[in-house]
């Protein structure tokens, strides 16, 4: 294309032509800058397109020109450079508000006149970038991102659930790193669905575990539309399918009945625990006696986490009911029925790492709250959770580095037991062990020692403080192999030896922990040599499934470790070629070659449609308020309506147009036509709508299609012709 001419005119050229409207009420009216200025300049090129000449030039303007200090406000002088665009994207991408990012740029260049664009331009740019993420539709864009991640990571798995109209209602994903983490630390899982900050009102349901540094790790995530039994069953079954069928030992959730039923169906071998924090927050409002009787409140908290046995729990619970006369309290009755899910007295044989609530998952929700808003798309929510996962993994890598290149400072450098343990555990786990050791040596004393059997000794221990000498613990100790068992069951629940056993060890001068009391998940080698294959005892399908799942994880982890070393890469490739040749020779002589039964990562759903946009129904993402915190009452906003009367010549016909100004959206709804006796009038007026108005000239308003009732709404007239008063 050859350009033959070009022209430039003043930005104030032309005059805005306003369209006639009926009482036009708009929330925002665009500024009219046109003054009909004729200043312009036009160029034309010759036939060859080489020489240009000015054909028209009007120099004079009919308005004052912008000053030097105001030129940055002109649209022709505003533009966002690539560096500024990149900075805005990065800052808003990590949760910084657009206005704060713009103010940062203003401070960097020394004022708004030097930044080169306005705050509105910054908002428009960020909005365009958000729309570009979902250019092909929100659900389809998310599906494309998940498919791209799967092509980059062979162990990345995801699945999408759609309804009969092929609209997305749930999706689940897990990457290769999460699968390895789950193999190492998937014994205790926190599952929470309290976060719903997106325009489709989908619940974010992350699977959170705890690593060997006692940090949060992400081992899978899902978004679900409805919190029903079917939805939770789909999420849990998909999770198990992608992790090779390995069930956690303990899972913590909130008090959701649908979730409880789903866990019983899918996680049949998992102990379901309820969040004690949610229970303690509900207690003051459900049991008023907790607010004024300290003894009853103390007994309740003892039942939650301080009872050493089921018998002690029953006695404390009965005492609480008797003191407060709470036998008829329905909430306590229902809570007692599920006592095995929330009281630690009934969970002494299951590992829980000392966790009592879902606060770890809710801390993730708080972080994610800064990455998304109520209008966020699915892609933005997924990317926000992915960034959170990356930050957690960076923290784990940093802690791995500190453990590898540093040593812990011991409180007692002469203790051989602490010296050896400090080289085995991570820094955080060692600090927990050391604190338990110190509590045992300083805070617990041995009051009795007796021979239990020919090989075992029974020790009776209690607090060193005379005021706390009510409770006693019993430790059975084998002096030959150092096997010990405590009545508190601290090792069985926390995974680290309790202070009572360590007090006995110190008493018997034990300098080496038995290997059975060092869980690999707490050591610095927790993620090394994880995959040791043994002959499976499951049926044929399960053995193939477990073998393929573990072999994929093993090769994935090995690839990540050697990818930065050329010599190691060459050695691994050579060894794998030798393994492949040897395997082919074996398979040629094996008539029972079986096909892999490992399920596919994801079934193609075709063109996935966006889920229906949902309005949040009162559920807040804020922290649940306690009994003592007063809820903030919303101030009622006065609703302003507009009613327009259109009268014909032969028949007076009222056409009511209802406009709700509360949201300032100006959406008109046709309501109802009312026929009046024939008159000849031309009238158009505005009336105000008043609920339960008293006084003045009023008439009943016709039915307004369930928006407002005809019984409590009247039309209040101010100054109208007498013909309208009847």
UniProtKB/TrEMBL annotation:
Pfam families: FAR1, MULE, SWIM. Transmembrane segments: none annotated. PROSITE patterns: ZF_SWIM. The keyword Zinc-finger applies. The keyword Zinc-finger applies. Keywords: Metal-binding, Zinc, Zinc-finger. Residues 595-634 are annotated as: Disordered. Residues 614-625 have a biased composition (Basic residues). Residues 473-509 form the SWIM-type domain. GO terms for molecular function: zinc ion binding. InterPro entries: FAR1_DNA_bnd_dom, MULE_transposase_dom, Znf_PMZ, Znf_SWIM. This is Protein FAR1-RELATED SEQUENCE 7. It comes from Platanthera zijinensis. The gene is FRS7.
């Amino acid at each position: 294309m050859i350009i033959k001419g070009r022209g430039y005119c003043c930005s104030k050229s032309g005059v805005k032509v306003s369209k006639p409207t009926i009482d036009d009420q708009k929330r925002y009216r665009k500024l009219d800058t046109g003054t009909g200025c004729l200043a312009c300049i036009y160029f034309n090129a010759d036939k060859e397109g080489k020489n240009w000449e000015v054909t028209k030039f009007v120099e004079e303007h009919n308005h004052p020109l912008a000053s030097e200090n105001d030129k940055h406000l002109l649209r022709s002088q505003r533009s966002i450079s690539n560096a500024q665009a990149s900075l805005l994207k990065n800052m808003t991408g990590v949760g910084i508000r657009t206005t704060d990012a713009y103010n940062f740029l203003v401070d960097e260049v020394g004022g708004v006149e030097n930044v080169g664009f306005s705050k509105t331009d910054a908002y428009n740019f960020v909005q365009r970038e958000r729309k570009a993420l979902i250019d092909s539709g929100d659900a389809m864009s998310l599906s494309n991102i998940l498919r791209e991640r799967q092509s980059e990571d062979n162990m990345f798995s995801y699945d999408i659930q759609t309804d009969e109209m092929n609209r997305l209602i749930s999706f689940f994903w897990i990457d290769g790193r999460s699968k390895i983490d789950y193999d190492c630390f998937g014994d205790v899982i926190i599952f929470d669905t309290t976060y719903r900050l997106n325009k489709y009102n989908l619940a974010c349901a992350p699977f959170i575990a705890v690593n060997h540094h006692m940090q949060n790790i992400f081992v899978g995530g899902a978004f679900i539309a409805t919190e029903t039994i079917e939805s939770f069953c789909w999420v849990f079954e998909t999770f198990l399918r992608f992790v090779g069928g390995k069930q956690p030992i303990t899972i913590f959730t909130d008090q959701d009945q649908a979730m409880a039923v789903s866990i019983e169906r899918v996680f049949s071998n998992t102990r379901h625990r309820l969040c004690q924090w949610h229970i303690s927050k509900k207690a003051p409002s459900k049991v008023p006696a907790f607010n004024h009787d300290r003894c009853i409140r103390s007994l309740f908290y003892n039942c939650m986490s301080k009872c050493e046995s089921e018998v002690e729990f029953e006695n404390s619970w009965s005492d609480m009911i008797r003191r407060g006369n709470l036998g008829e309290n329905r909430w306590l009755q229902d809570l007692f029925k599920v006592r095995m899910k929330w009281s630690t007295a009934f969970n002494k044989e299951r590992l829980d790492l000392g966790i009592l609530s879902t606060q770890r998952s809710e801390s993730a929700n708080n972080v994610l709250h800064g990455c998304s808003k109520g209008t966020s798309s699915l892609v933005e929510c997924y990317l926000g959770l992915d960034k959170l996962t990356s930050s957690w993994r960076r923290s784990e890598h940093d802690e791995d580095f500190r453990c590898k290149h540093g040593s812990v400072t011991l409180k007692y450098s002469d203790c051989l037991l602490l010296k050896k343990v400090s080289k085995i555990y991570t820094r955080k786990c060692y600090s927990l062990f050391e604190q338990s050791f110190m509590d045992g040596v300083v805070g617990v004393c041995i009051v009795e020692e007796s021979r239990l059997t020919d090989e075992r000794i029974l020790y009776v221990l209690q607090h060193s403080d005379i005021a706390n000498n009510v409770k006693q613990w019993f430790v059975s100790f084998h002096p030959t192999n150092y096997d010990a068992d405590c009545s508190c069951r601290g090792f069985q629940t926390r995974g680290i030896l309790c202070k009572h056993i360590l007090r006995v060890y110190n008493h018997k001068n034990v300098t080496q922990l038995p290997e059975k009391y060092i869980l690999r998940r707490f050591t610095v080698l927790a993620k090394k040599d994880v995959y040791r294959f043994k002959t499976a005892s499951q049926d044929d399908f399960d053995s193939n499934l477990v073998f393929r799942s573990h072999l994929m994880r093993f090769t994935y982890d090995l690839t990540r470790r050697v990818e930065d070393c050329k010599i190691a890469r060459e050695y691994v490739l050579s060894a794998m070629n030798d393994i492949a040749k040897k395997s082919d020779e074996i398979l040629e002589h094996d008539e029972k070659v079986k096909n892999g039964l490992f399920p596919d990562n994801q079934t193609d759903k075709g063109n996935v449609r966006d889920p229906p946009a949902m309005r949040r129904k009162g559920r807040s993402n804020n922290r649940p308020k306690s009994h003592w915190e007063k809820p903030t009452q919303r101030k009622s906003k006065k609703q302003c309506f507009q009613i327009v009367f259109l009268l014909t010549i032969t028949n007076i016909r009222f056409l009511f147009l209802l406009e709700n100004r509360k949201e300032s959206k100006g959406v008109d709804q046709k309501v109802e036509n009312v026929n009046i006796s024939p008159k000849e009038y031309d009238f158009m007026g505005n009336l105000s709508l008043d609920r339960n108005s008293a006084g003045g000239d009023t008439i009943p308003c016709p039915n307004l299609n369930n928006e407002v009732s005809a019984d409590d709404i009247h039309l209040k007239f101010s100054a109208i012709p007498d013909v309208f008063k009847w």
